[in-house]
């Protein structure tokens, strides 16, 4: 398939490389050309401007946040320039309101819009092992299906409205935040009775909380990674996406509100650039 | 082994039956004799008074709460009557302070005290499929080992101080409460974008939150059981055990504090006797 | 003095009228001309466009919110058109970041900027009985002094940086929100022991909580006004201004976070357009 | 009047002295005799045992907490020994459940019981300037009226059920706690914009938050007293009385829950014996 690809951060590069390996033809754009080098060497074509990626069946975008999407797709008029044949496949995480707005603008422009945010780290992207949550018009989803097969180990179709995929990603990351918070609190509590956190973690993850998220984030609290791939500051952004989405539809999210304040306190104490899981360490230290 | 057994609620009956099946000799006591009938028919001996269970190597107690322990073991002087050869194996969940107090009283009386609270429902008790968290003096734990093998599918030795087992159980149940709360909030949030809770649950439990606790409590929110085995009111008690333990050692547990208030609000709206997971339904209804 | 006046809502009209009465010459602008009628009849001059108000010593603006300020002053280029001799006196409540941005833009344009948000209802505006919190360059504040005397019963100089006045207003309104929340909780609590809220209010406001805010908001909970002058929805906006300001400087505001969720829950139950104090009624009803 | 007086802490001594000055005859008891010395020198009679205070029209008790009341009045059988003519006037702060229990026990014993907790510091006790909240049977309240006139500058009759006075005291102290918490948060917020807390305090207490509680606790945050008369640890106890009362009647008190956790965190950082208001300092320090 002929694919445009916008946004070559760590995740984007891994995904684009995977698509090249699967035989797709890519024209790529990134704000700065540096990160494209490896992909160009493997056969991707460089686009001088985002518009040049539009001449494809699908344009995947994997931009950092709402502000980047606003700049590249909206303020520049890129959406309006999208042809009717084009499907904009947004695999980045954006806010609920941005998700709604993009869908509406594409509808007005006559082009198709699919939201398909992913779960997974850069290495999963490279290996095609992402979990993908997709939503959008049925025919557009169908067109994207083969790409999902290449990029992910699993994909979920959560509805015809693109923003439904965004809310699933947002709600799931909120649940992740509650896991970090609750592990921090529980570790602090058992620690005061001289039960080491690793033993507590071992017990709960070999019984009813036997899930990758508990194992992974629990371990990261116990042995903080020296090279955080996802800093606490970005964790806060995820919690704020949940709060913003909830405010839009008047849903109280008291846990998210509490956890947001915990992030702020941790950031005020210098944890902003540490690994997200170290929110747990801050909670323990504070106790 | 010759075993005394005090407290024949649903859990206690299942466990006592399992021990009988394994060939142990039981003398049982319960506040009201009714629940003992089945066990007596299977060979257990009835004790008219708790003291009569003391003439054994081990006395297992499985009483409902701190108040019952206080009445049966402390106010009655039962601890002091325990012989040096006796091991009091308390498999019920008690507060951290009660755990500490019993250990100290047994130490003073010269008898051994082991705390070994369990995870699992009555059917797991009947089938010897409990998860057991044990703590106490090494030799006493060793004596209890064979019983743990009979009663559980797994057991964990968390230390020489009995209360260490209590705090692990308390902290784990607190984490369970955060799971219910966070599922309720997340379901409320995705529901406003017409994503059904079962689909959200399916997605998170087939990816990084693939744990029995999420599956089980998630399902119970989606399809509330008609015969709750563990009512919300008891869930509140667990959260309060966590808060009380945390207060003893000056550990802030902000999530537990928030969740306690949610329980109170749910109880004020008539959810006290519903299944614990319906805290989630109350959260959804409120949104 | 020759004064421009932008923004003729209830507060703005009252303030502008008071200035006319004091003998000042006003050129007024409002998005829709209707609200200006009364002022024009009393001698004010109508400006067809905001720019026409710039030809004065001082332009007071009293716009509804950040979005209105963004549209009228920033997107339109009004700030850049301000002459060096002009003082923009912003008496409306804006966010901390908007406060900082306006100050910086005026500095770049060479014009003066003073922030002077007010406490008080429309009738206080009409009667010159506002409380005014002002900040900005010393000479600009001095120029505005006589206007503060006319408009307020008191004014406070809180510093040379305009945003200092904004943060004081924001923090004070946050404290107001905690008063409503705490009264709601306290009324709910005493009510369960058949102590009527009016009696509790009478006791605390005749002893150590003898403050207008407790009396006023307490009474509004007990006897909700039929014509709310300040709806709950706007109260939420104030709490969000506090949370946004706090996030900018990494200050945890756990009470504000909790109260925000309470507002959302109340709004979800149809309280959005009721008087702000009815947050208290919602809390009582929920208990 | 002939009065028994039990409990000679700082508050009790001040009150007893005031009663002596007003010409009443006092027989006093305290766990340790030391604090009674000054009163004996002024004419009070020493009671070797609490029972000896019962031979009076009224016995005022001013014991430290529920545990002391339990020991002196309940476990000792003092309530049952009370004659029908006796009025037990409990001016200390006890929990809602203790308040209910004492009323019921006195009713069973045929004696009268009045709860009349007070607001004020030791110096107010000495000067008869307390604020008194009283509840109990009408005739018993009438008998106590003259004592209230001597001890207080004001007294409030809040109902015929003694525990109604307890809940008013508890709810009022909870509101006090929210004042300290909100001042701490607000000071932290304005401080980040270089607005000194004393200026913020001056502004809010000269406008709508013009109440002794804001002035007093605000000042204590700004200039912590070297000799705390009411340590943070006791503040926590007050918040816990509110939470316990609320749990009894299924009232959610989310602010109290949050503030309890803040106290625990502050205590974990060594603030337990500092002045209650320093909860605010801890919040500022943490930001």
Task: Describe the fold and architecture.
- Four copies of one chain form a homotetramer.
- With 287 residues, chain A is α/β, with parallel strands linked by helices.
- Chain A has two domains: 2-161, Rossmann fold (3-Layer(aba) Sandwich), CATH 3.40.50.720; 167-286, N-(1-d-carboxylethyl)-l-norvaline Dehydrogenase, domain 2, CATH 1.10.1040.
- In chain A, 54% of the residues lie in helices and 13% in strands.
- Chain A contains 13 helices and nine strands.
- In chain A, strands 3-2-1-4-5-6 form a six-stranded parallel beta sheet, with helices on both faces. Chain A has a three-stranded mixed beta sheet with strand order 7-8-9.
- In chain A, β1, α1 (10-21) and β2 form a beta-alpha-beta unit.
- Chains in contact: A-B, A-C, A-D, B-C, B-D, C-D.
- The interface between A and B is large, with 63 and 63 residues.
